[in-house]
Structures are given as structure tokens and as C-alpha cells.
Amino acid sequence: METLIVTGGNIEKEFLLKTIKESEFEIIIAVDNGLKILNEININPQHIVGDFDTVKSEILDKYKENKSIKIHEFNPIKDNTDTDIAIRLAIELKSDEITIIGGIGTRIDHVLGNIHVLKYALDSNIECKIIDENNEIQLIDKTTIIKKKDITKKYISLIPLTEKVEHINLKGFKYELKSGTLTMGSSLGISNEILKEEAIIEFDNGILIMINSKD
Prior knowledge:
Elements: E1 2-6, H1 13-22, E2 25-31, H2 34-40, E3 47-50, H3 57-64, E4 70-73, H4 82-92, E5 97-101, H5 108-123, E6 127-131, E7 135-140, E8 144-147, E9 155-160, E10 164-171, E11 177-183, E12 192-193, E13 198-202, E14 208-213
Parallel strand pairs: 1-2, 1-5, 2-3, 3-4, 5-6
Antiparallel strand pairs: 6-7, 7-14, 8-13, 9-12, 9-14, 10-11, 10-13
């Protein structure tokens, strides 16, 4: 089951519409002000979550009248971000894949926080990505095969989320690596490119942030 989470960061309307059209989302979760753009394109989510400190009350009230939509309202004084709560909800709903749009914006603290909470999905063996027009971000903790025909952007960057990721072998890339180590504080894994039809990322332990970026 594919789930789309629409949160309150930067979202291009055409990109959102294209993503919804080309995918088979069974569940859409709106996160606080992410409801605004869904309202603009006339898409109803199945769930709305947040403390609702940013979405306008008149928009939220409109959806409260729809009894088929579940509203999950939280106190603004809480330990978890709204996106964190949405990912946990998507996992509870038995999602197989989770796509997050609006998780990248001008608040760098929120962007970093959103990348870190992807670990909930990783721990549940659920593929979870944050995407926008220029980037796709996900976490990987095991050998990963990437088919060139399946990626839409030019660069692949690998950044350690854990202190270090050891015994990395990169095959099929412009810059290959044999039994290498990526450590926090190093930029070694930035801006690689896939040259062959299939690229392989092998490593023994740790977690990598994998970013497929356009420019």
C-alpha cells in the first residue's frame, strides 16, 4: 500500500499533481499547512494530522465537516514534529511505501529533522522518501541496487547518518569505491554519478542518507 504525506514545506503545485497522477496512492495524509495545497487542487486526504498552528481555521473547518476524513489533532506543546507523527501514522496503517512531499523547505532544522525521522520507516522495513522537483532523499542500511532507468536525476550522494559506515563498495558509479569508509565530517560521498545500467552500494553496517539530486 502506497501512502503520500503532504506536509507544509515548499511544494510546486504541478509537481504534486504529477506525482499523484503517476502513482497509486491508497492513502493521503495531510500535515497541518500541507492541507492548504491539497485544498487548492481539490484533493481530499483520508487523514489530517498536526497541531494546526499554521493551517487557516476556515480550511480545516471545511474538512472537519467531512466525516470520511479522520482528524488527528495534537497539542502544540509536544515532543514530536507533525511530520514525525504522520510517518508513525502511515506505519500504523500498514503502508508498504511512503512518499513525503513538502518535507524540504526554508527551515533547515525541519529538513534535518525530517531526514532523521525517516528512520522509523527504515526500522520497519518500509521504503520512505522525501521528494521535491530537485531531490529524492531516503535512508539505506543494507546493500542497495539502483537501476539507471529508475532514477530521474543526475547525482547520487551518500552521507553517513551514523558515525561511520564501513566496508563500502560502490560499483557502476563514476567514482567507484572498494572497502571504503564514510565518516561523519567527511564530504567523500557527495556528487557521484551512475555510469552503468545498474549500480550497487554494498556495506556492512551503519546507515547512509542517499540523495538523488538534479543539479
